[in-house]
Amino acid sequence: MERVIKALKWIGLGFFEPLIMLIQGKEVEKNIRLVFRQIIVPVLSVFIFLGACNIGADYLFKVERDRKIEKTRTVQGDAAAKQMQECIDSGDESCKPNSLPSPADVKKGAISLWEDHKSISAKKSAFKEKTAAINKKRKEAGQKAIVYTGRPSFVDQIYTSLKTVFAGFLLAALLAIPAGIVLGLSETLRTSINWIIQILKPVSPVVWLLLVSMVVKTVLANSDSDKSFVISFISVGLCSMWATLVNTAMGVSSVDQDYLNVSKVLRLGVFSNVFKVILPASIPMIFTGLRITLSVSWMVLIAIELLAQSPGLGSFVWEEFQNGANDSNAKIIVAMFVIGIIGFMLDRIMMFIQKLASFDSK
């Protein structure tokens, strides 16, 4: 059981420890209090949140309902207003006011998105089977394969966003960690470059997107590569790299002097000193920066996809907002929770990797 508890702590689910201890009959009174505080209260807060959302959605629905009926009365008269009221009260989706969706509406939106994904996946499979023979001949002839160009599903857009954010995060790490090590090793260089970091660090994703677009569209003008993907992941990387850069520089510059003295005694070379002494000692600070970078990457990605109209969750949210269908608001809320859950999971993954990489982790 101790292994289970240790594993839960490693993946960030240590709050289940009191429940396991209670099941074993250990320190019953203490663990009952902990279970109540760490498990029961958070679960109750979920129901309270859903109840508050339902009450708020019901209130806004009534406000929009009365407004829509009154507007119909003003424009078309009492008979049309009465007909509109009967239509709304019947639950007909065609005349339902466009307001904040209730939890039940959000559930319907999630189911609708999943059904839509299954339908699109079936179409993709049918297209792949239909074009398999043709694509085989095209491949043998050195030609490009015919690909499915239909509308992507919500799940497809999640995959696209994850691919983009990991590419951007990798770019940020590749730029920030080496630069941070160099800056951390030289106080003179760190002082001279600091003004550039302080100016570029708060620059908006919108500005980075515009700058990257100018460069990429010029450099890849004659290329067949996916320019929207390249623009998106580079913009994400440049927006989010600064936390890792600053933390790496701070971690390297604050390495315990005793470690550096041992390095001098052993007469380690520059690279040996960096990889055997400085980096291991700086790992906690570097991973703190990487966790922040990954969180920022995911956050700015949604805005960048929305602005660049590149495939992904940001584009999905904008398209649903522009669509204005009766279930669009519910689908936007579903996307909001998916974005939040994925962001939380990414942070947990980084925390887990940090524990694996840290030499002093238990």
Characterise the protein shown here.
- There is one protein chain.
- The chain has 362 residues and is an all-alpha fold.
- The protein folds into three domains: 2-92, no CATH class; 102-151; 152-357, Orthogonal Bundle (MetI-like fold).
- It is 80% helix and 0% strand.
- It has helices at 2-10, 17-23, 28-76, 78-89, 103-140, 154-185, 187-200, 205-219, 227-240, 242-253, 257-265, 270-308, 313-323, 328-357.
- Helix 3 runs antiparallel to helix 4 (78-89), helix 5 (103-140) crosses helix 14 and helix 9 (227-240) packs across helix 12 (270-308).
- The model has no long low-confidence stretch (mean pLDDT 84).
TL;DR of this structure?
This protein has 362 residues and is mostly helical. 80% of the residues lie in helices and 0% in strands. The protein contains 14 helices and no strands.
Please tag this protein with its features:
3 domains; globular; MetI-like fold; single chain; mainly alpha; 362 residues
Q: Outline, from the CA principal axes?
A: globular
- Rg calculated over all Cα atoms: 27 Å
- Quaternary structure: single chain
CATH fold description of the largest domain:
MetI-like fold
Strand content: under 5%
Largest sheet: none
H/E element order: HHHHHHHHHHHHHH
Structural class: mainly alpha
Number of domains: 3
**CATH superfamily grouping of the largest domain:** MetI-like
Helix content: over 70%
User: How many beta-strand segments?
Assistant: 0
Spatial gap, N to C terminus: 17 Å
Q: What top-tier CATH class of the largest domain fits best?
A: Mainly Alpha
Number of helices: 14
Mean pLDDT: 84
CATH architecture annotation name of the largest domain: Orthogonal Bundle
List low-pLDDT spans.
none
